[in-house]
Amino acid sequence: MPFKAAISGLEAASTELNVIGNNIANSATTGFKRSRAEFQDVFAVSATGAAANATGRGVDTARVAQQFDQGNISFTDNALDLAISGEGFFILDNDGERIYSRDGAFGVDRDGYLTNSANHRLMAFGADAQGNINGALAPLQLSQANNPPRASTNVVVGANFDADDTPPSVGTFNPTDANSYNETTALNVYDSQGGSHLMQMYFVRGPLTGNTWDVHTYVDGNPVSGPDTLTFDGAGLLTSPAGGQFTLPAFTPAPGVNPMNVTTTLSGSTMYGAPFGVSKLTQDGFTTGRLAGIDIDDEGVILARFTNGQSAVQGQVALANFASTQGLRPLGGNGWSQTFAAGEVLEGRPGSASLGLIQGGALEDSNVDLSAELVNLIIAQRNFQANTEVISTADAVTQAVINIR
């Protein structure tokens, strides 16, 4: 009688309904990978195999196979949200246990580690002080320290000095008397502790018999250097000092800071018959910076941005892949663990080997196709109902046999 075959059909249909229901329930779960129930027929066999006219004994669930195809990527307003475009898994640390996930919803805990909702820490390759990525894999911890200041050592000025200017009416230079100089410009420079100081340069036209200008340099209103003479040739090009550079005498702009040694470069400056104008004015120092934000590029390099305009590499997100992702064991919580069936783990940088790229400020959606799952749900329901009909028919036949007199 076909009772056992029909019962196995009910069990198979029930398994498929469970799989479909789980897929539908996780259709909005970040990084979720749908599953598919796969079945195989059952025959009664002997040592020589099943007979040519053997009747099947029903169906069995061969496996529930995970489908690791790519989910859609949705952008978010959180820079620490990460999505993998391509193959690979994030590597998470759970007190020494490795967990692999496609869910890139990360945040920063109180110790500066990047963690998911289960407090599993994201693993990354470290970086040295120069920003070079090394091969040391460890939980990623963002530095909460201020970016240290750097004292200014170079000031670069690009300007045109008006060839038609005449020497000032007041022959003795005085920074408080605008009649004692022709032009001026200023910028901020920084000491060894990040303090800001105003550097002013005053330009005084020399005698009309020569193409010279004198530069007087003041810092916070105090004289530092000058006059330093600039000499131009007949074509208006700077010829002296050599390389357009002059070095200011060492000065201490504030108590307790290191003496500053600044070189001023005016190479490229000209003396043409046009109004005075500054086309370039830069310096290489900066003040102390606080962490302002985090940027993550498509290769997983994590860049910290500071309020002083500087940036520093914090590390690079590591990804993992396996020879057979079907062999991974689901752990729940959007994670998988390695098994013998999955093969050896391959760890590397995003974009290398078979590993995908990283999209910052985005999350990978579930790869569940709701329309397809609803159709599958109808089919599984009909399969279930059809097997119940087999049982009902078999029961009727049984009753007929019992009732024979």
Layout of SSEs?
Elements: H1 3-25, E1 35-43, E2 56-66, E3 73-75, E4 82-85, E5 89-94, E6 97-101, E7 107-108, E8 114-115, E9 121-127, E10 133-139, E11 154-160, E12 183-190, E13 196-205, E14 212-219, E15 222-232, E16 238-240, E17 245-247, E18 263-265, E19 277-283, E20 291-296, E21 301-306, E22 311-317, E23 319-322, E24 329-332, E25 335-337, E26 345-348, E27 357-360, E28 362-364, H2 370-402
Helix pairs in contact: 1-2
Main beta sheet: strand number and arrangement? 11 strands, antiparallel
Number of helices: 2
Shape: rod-shaped
Average pLDDT confidence is 90
Ends: how far apart?
20 Å
Radius of gyration (CA) equals 38 Å
Could you give the order of the helices and strands?
A: HEEEEEEEEEEEEEEEEEEEEEEEEEEEEH
Task: Indicate the structural class.
Answer: mainly beta
* Secondary structure: helix percent: 10-25%
Low-confidence parts, pLDDT < 50 over ≥5 residues?
A: none
Number of strands: 28
Estimate what percentage of residues fall within beta strands: 35-45%
> In the residues, how many domains can be counted?
3
